[in-house]
Amino acid sequence: MMRAAKPVLTPHDPDFESRVRESFERQGAMKLIGASLEKVAPGEVEIYLPFREDLTQQHGFVHAGIITTVMDNACGFAAYSLMPADASVLSVEFKVNLLAPAKGEAFIARGEVIKPGRTITVCNGEVYAPGEVNKLIATMTATLIMLQGRTGIPQG
Amino acid sequence: MMRAAKPVLTPHDPDFESRVRESFERQGAMKLIGASLEKVAPGEVEIYLPFREDLTQQHGFVHAGIITTVMDNACGFAAYSLMPADASVLSVEFKVNLLAPAKGEAFIARGEVIKPGRTITVCNGEVYAPGEVNKLIATMTATLIMLQGRTGIPQG
Amino acid sequence: MMRAAKPVLTPHDPDFESRVRESFERQGAMKLIGASLEKVAPGEVEIYLPFREDLTQQHGFVHAGIITTVMDNACGFAAYSLMPADASVLSVEFKVNLLAPAKGEAFIARGEVIKPGRTITVCNGEVYAPGEVNKLIATMTATLIMLQGRTGIPQG
Amino acid sequence: MMRAAKPVLTPHDPDFESRVRESFERQGAMKLIGASLEKVAPGEVEIYLPFREDLTQQHGFVHAGIITTVMDNACGFAAYSLMPADASVLSVEFKVNLLAPAKGEAFIARGEVIKPGRTITVCNGEVYAPGEVNKLIATMTATLIMLQGRTGIPQG
Asked: Against a cut of 0.90, is the pTM above it?
């Protein structure tokens, strides 16, 4: 529906993709839940999550928190893809709407920068269950902050 | 960016537009701030707000709360446009990101249903300043609830 | 319910109260809706809003956007009260839950800093209708950013 | 800071605690991340999460999504504790602010009902790292919906 102009998404670092992939690999949580990083484009990231029983809540659907975990990553790495090579990214806050039960064999989380900024970047995310009709499961709006030279926060 | 399927937006009431416009007319707050209802389509509403000095915050931009007021209405009436004739709509919650100062001669708030539902409807909203480039000012995600036959809440 | 430690709220500027009150006075929107600034303490602000017909939505309650306007201000000025004298504050985002219809003769918006920071400050806000029982109308969580020396954003 | 009246939190079902504990036990995700259910009171729940390397993001802190997972559960079960025995609870949406890196040996997630309702319940949640000073890590506001007799959603 966006009728406002689309943002221009230009990465500061030409090696953004390898930087994003290395950062993703350092996340213990992604291995634990079995998520993999698919597409990495400037300001846009996709993550793939197969269904597993040990990801579920009490009704047998994937837990909203696990859905959030992959959406937060898709948004965070979408923001990070535009940042300088020595930057770190942290989530300041996010808001999630859960639109349908997370049923399905697999899920795709997509994150996209809607407002790049010097300090603050804002992203939209979604998770859908791919199929004949790609069923929308959840949406996110996330606010990320870029840190540079902050002690205690390694690059990534 | 949405790669999930778009929702099907079918109004329950063929007279949805006049119902939306009557409800809008009953809002004292819209008269106070000088907003007018423009487009009304199934699941989609646009509101127009000219700049006025008496809508500003301390820096001379339109107040984030006033921007929210028109976005909340655009979302609420987008949801209401799909509901039965005897229903009422109330905002359960919303989340707003303020992406740029609300500078400009006028602003357009758009609301769109992303998930229609029996009880809960979810909408996305945005406000932009129209111009050569339509500058995105703010975004909203809103959760609305439909009420029917609830005492104390008149239809609308 | 907070069992985490409370934040220490120390203003950088001993004249924080006059600075907050001057900034409030510059807001055209506050005059328009008839809101007044009551309490100003370090990291805590209260705003008073009497009911008026021209603040209402279609059901005769005060519009959620107007309720948001005073809550956003209570949060923004609570954050601003802790900042250096040459700083400006802007809302990055906020999230509002509407818990009860805004019925009553008057409303009090309170904002409180829950996490002061160098760049980012997070506040909680609420609006209630005072009475024998103070009825909770709405809650807010707001993220604010401090700007210093940014051209185009006057102090305040 | 809440000066509005506190809600009265009365469980519909005297066996609420065993019902909450059984539902928690059915969550594969809780076993996966090693979380345990501690306190269950009417409208209030605490969950304990020890630090593990396989819960981390790229900087070595516990992933914001995992922190969200336990907060979402604390809120969801706090809401569920007040509901009738044949009800199910689902998260409609939540909003998370990440206030400090999730460093520490363990974390406690607390959820509390701030507005019980027939259909919609609103909760506040927080995660803190217990210590000499209990360090606040994150906060949540969550909107939950009660379902009764909905096919496809088992009780819990």
From this structure: yes
